[in-house]
Amino acid sequence: MDQATFRNPPPTFRAAPFWSWNDDLDPEELVRQVGLMDEAGWGGFFMHSRVGLAPDPLAAYRASGYYERIVQERAGAEVGKGAGYPGA
Questions:
Q1: Other CB atoms closer than 10 Å to residue 57's CB: what's the count?
Q2: What is the rounded CA–CA span in Å between residue 57 and residue 5?
Q3: How far apart are CA 78 and CA 75, in angstroms?
Q4: Domain boundaries, the chain
Q5: Cβ(50)–Cβ(22) under 8 Å?
Q6: Residue-level pLDDT, tens digit, the chain, 88 residues
Q7: CA atoms within 13 A on the CB side of 29
Q8: Pairing state between β 78-83 and 18-21
Q9: Which class for 67: exposed (0-12), middle (13-18), buried (19 or more C-beta within 10 A)?
Q10: Quick one: pLDDT at residue 54?
Q11: How many Å separate Cα 18 from the centre of its chain?
Q12: CB–CB of 58/83 below 8 Å?
């Protein structure tokens, strides 16, 4: 790896935090938070549903369009998803 790449690594070599989803999911707020992670230089993130998503924790997490919209916002970055619930 050359020095320029070491100093400014591509997304696959950067940190990627857990991004806890624990409240109502507002698509515009999700996009805003993705922008903040981009500005901070994160290489991606792992979307992680938590207790608090209403009314059904998994229904909001699995809602049509949320995951796809975030993936579109982060073209080229590492995006993962997980859940803290059995069967998720």
A1: 19
A2: 40
A3: 9
A4: 14-83
A5: yes
A6: 899 999 999 888 888 888 887 776 777 888 888 889 889 988 888 877 666 666 665 565 566 566 666 767 666 666 665 555 444 4
A7: 7
A8: unpaired
A9: middle
A10: 60
A11: 7
A12: yes
Amino acid making up residue 69:
R
Burial class (CB in 10 A: 0-12, 13-18, 19+), 53: buried
Of 18, 14, 56, 21, the closest CA to residue 38 belongs to 14
Q: Give me the residues paired with residue 19 across strands.
A: 47
**Secondary structure of the chain in HEC code, one letter for each residue:** CCHHHHHCCCHHHCCCCEEEECCCCCHHHHHHHHHHHHHHCCCEEEEEECCCCCCCHHHHHCCCCHHHHHHHHCCCCEEEEEECCCCC
- Residue type at 75 in one-letter notation: A
Q: What is the pTM of this model?
A: 0.65
